[in-house]
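URGENT: need a sanity check before tomorrow's submission.

F., can you look over the DUF1659 domain-containing protein record below? I want to be sure the sequence and structure line up before it goes out.
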Amino acid sequence: MLKELTLNLTFVAAVDDKGKETKKTRRFSQVRLDLTDAQALELKGLISELTGEDYISAELTELKLVK
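Structure tokens as predicted:
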């Protein structure tokens, strides 16, 4: 049984003098359990517009209850 779905959006927060990237992730927990991949990508675009951050990846993480 699917218990929780989390949307993880990753972006590059900084680049140092040597070109090494520092990545950060925003997590949105308790999103709708029936969220599709297409809807997750649409949500990624909307959140990007609101925050001004350019997300390089979107990941859905499922938490399932095992009995």
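My own read: The two ends are 9 Å apart (CA to CA). The chain has one domain: 5-62. If you see anything odd, call me.
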